[in-house]
Prior knowledge:
Layout: E1 12-14, E2 18-23, H1 29-38, H2 41-45, E3 55-59, E4 65-69, H3 75-82, E5 90-96, H4 103-114, E6 119-124, H5 133-142, E7 156-158, H6 167-181, E8 184-186, E9 192-201, E10 205-214, E11 217-218, E12 222-225, E13 228-236, E14 242-243, E15 245-246, E16 251-257, E17 266-270, H7 273-296
Parallel strand pairs: 2-4, 2-5, 5-6, 6-7
Antiparallel strand pairs: 1-8, 3-4, 9-10, 9-17, 10-16, 11-15, 12-13, 12-17, 13-14, 13-16
This protein binds guanosine-5'-diphosphate (GDP).
Amino acid sequence: ARRIHSNEGAELLPRPPVVTVMGHVDHGKTSLLDALRQTSVAAKEAGGITQHLGAFVVDMSSGASITFLDTPGHAAFSAMRARGAAVTDIVVLVVAADDGVMRQTLEAMSHAKAANVPIVVAINKCDKPAANPDRVKIQLASEGLQLEEMGGDVQVVEVSAVQKTGLDNLEEALLLQAEMMNLKARIDGPAQAYVVEARLDKGRGPLATAIVKAGTLVCGQYVVIGSEWGRIRAIRDMIGKLAVQARPAMPVEIEGLKGLPMAGDDIIVVESEERAKMLSAGRKRKFEKDRLRKISE
Ligand code: GDP
């Protein structure tokens, strides 16, 4: 296949970090994401009402922004890692200050480590009388996390998702982590993107939330998504506003797909409908072959 995208020689510009929240069940991932979502300017402008897109952006008063994947749990992260498409730059490891480190805390740590993604720890529920953040820090350190206050480089922030305290500190910590990583992306040229969530809408057909990794996704383009294809009919931002294009780290909902893709699928731009159909059919054959091989194994 002729590759129509290349990062060589292209100008690279700073891009926002893409962050995934992980941690043990009930430690407050959903609550924390809700609290963070409410800090975004877009949410404030929309009166707190945002679409559930599977991702959202927090714009800081400094002008910087952070993209959060809004699918807590390991599923999306694992799916993307399995496809070699690590869309996540940073993992926020949520640990409840009362419960401390639990089985899924350790699982999240090993996921992040395997994917070579740095962790920022959010010790949550610090408002609770039984909260013991120091105990959590000792537990994490004994599990091998090199905490900053012990001379390492893993930042720890104490928060309460319910009382909405410490959220600024968490956002600052994420920006600092991102700065150290020097995240950059090509802006010009065809997009390389990933699906973080997909759903079927009765009226609009298959919809996918996409995050662009490099380049710019433009309305009207032909795309191949996993083994599906389509022509982008509409691009919407997190408050449902129509956009002409999507740039790196900006989560958007795209419309105009012929079939339903899966979280973790890659999105590539192709030059024509024929090419889109051909690639999609080829990938369908390959996926089917892989599936049959797995069954027979
Ligand atoms: P998840 O399973 O990790 O997504 O956890 P949830 O966000 O659903 O939270 C589990 C429970 O803990 C809910 O009853 C929340 O109200 C509660 N919770 C979450 N964050 C906090 C917090 O900062 N303080 C207190 N006191 N409770 C919290």
